[in-house]
Design brief:
This protein is an alpha+beta fold and 153 residues long. The chain has 2 domains: 63 residues, no CATH class; 65 residues, no CATH class. The chain has 6 helices and 4 strands. Strands 1-2-3-4 form a 4-stranded antiparallel beta sheet. It is extended and about 55 Å long.
Length: 153
């Protein structure tokens, strides 16, 4: 695959795949194992050094079901949804990336509470009960007693 220029960096992804059976790999429904090599070079020399990573994936898709390009688009779409979905919301609404809690169980607890707050917001938004302009302002108005009532509803 060719280099792509985007976000002030060069990226290249290459995919290799191996057909397997669920019995061979020990994963129910797994018909392929994929390896994606991701190479990244920042165009700003003051930025991070070049990176070269390999990500491994297992899929239930049969080898002839999708081309290599289609598989790469599926993988990129998956990570894009994560980065632009809940992760982005947790960072923008709750400053998760700036949080410096290092103790593992405390960090896990904070992540769980953030997910709970976003889940409650989405549920109330779905029910048409949100008057705030987004999750962050809604959470600022939330009290513990109101949150407990929402969990019981």
């Amino acid at each position: 695959m060719n280099w792509e220029k985007d976000h002030w960096r060069l990226d290249r992804r290459r995919l290799a795949r191996v057909a397997v059976t669920p019995e061979e790999i020990g994963l129910c429904g797994c018909w392929q194992v994929l390896a994606v090599r991701r190479e990244r070079v920042d165009l700003d020399p003051r930025a991070a050094p070049p990176s070269d990573e390999i990500g491994y994936y297992a899929t239930s898709l049969a080898p002839d079901e999708r081309t290599e390009n289609e598989l790469q688009e599926i993988i990129r779409g998956h990570w894009s949804a994560i980065e632009n979905g809940i992760h982005h919301r947790r960072d923008v609404s709750f400053g998760e990336d700036a949080c410096r809690v290092a103790e593992r169980s405390a960090a896990h607890t904070l992540a769980t509470l953030r997910n709970l707050a976003i889940g409650l917001y989405e549920l109330e938004n779905y029910r048409g009960r949100v008057k705030a302009n987004g999750c962050k302002s809604w959470c600022r108005r939330m009290t513990v007693s109101h949150a407990l009532r929402l969990l019981r509803a």
